[in-house]
Design goal:
Length: about 140
């Protein structure tokens, strides 16, 4: 979990978030450090993010901005091909949006009363743990 400045674009932190991924493997061994794909909204549709994900071998599920489409079409054949886009995988992105909406229900996080990033991050981690515990409570 990475906390940014209040007005900072969160797309700029994508590389740092990917560097922090450590997903343990069920059978043991080294943890996974890269996802198979990254699904994001149009705010992440920058050339920098796309090149970084391509260099890491991660599939991008990010729609093109309308301005990028127009620019590419204006260039004609020199504009290149549109980046690949999996519409079915993008439909699953609503899970992420719902979790953000769930976080916003916690007043301390939604209003950002905390002045220090470390206390805000601690609150976000506590909320994530509580949510995870609630979801695990439903499993047999």
């Amino acid at each position: 979990m990475v906390v940014t400045g209040g007005q900072r674009n969160d797309g700029a932190m994508l590389e740092q978030v990917l560097d922090d991924i450590r997903a343990p493997r069920p059978g043991g061994g080294r943890p996974r450090t890269a996802p198979d794909s990254v699904a994001a909204d149009k705010a992440y549709a920058t050339g920098v993010n796309r090149r970084m994900l391509r260099a890491r071998g991660i599939k991008t599920v990010i729609p093109e901005k309308s301005t990028e489409i127009a620019s590419r079409k204006r260039k004609g054949s020199a504009g290149g091909r549109p980046p690949p886009f999996d519409t079915d995988a993008y439909k699953a992105r609503n899970v992420v949006e719902r979790s953000f909406n769930r976080i916003k229900q916690w007043r301390g996080l939604a209003t950002r009363y905390d002045k220090l990033a470390i206390t805000y991050r601690a609150g976000a981690l506590i909320h994530a743990c509580l949510t995870w515990a609630q979801l695990l409570g439903d499993t047999p």
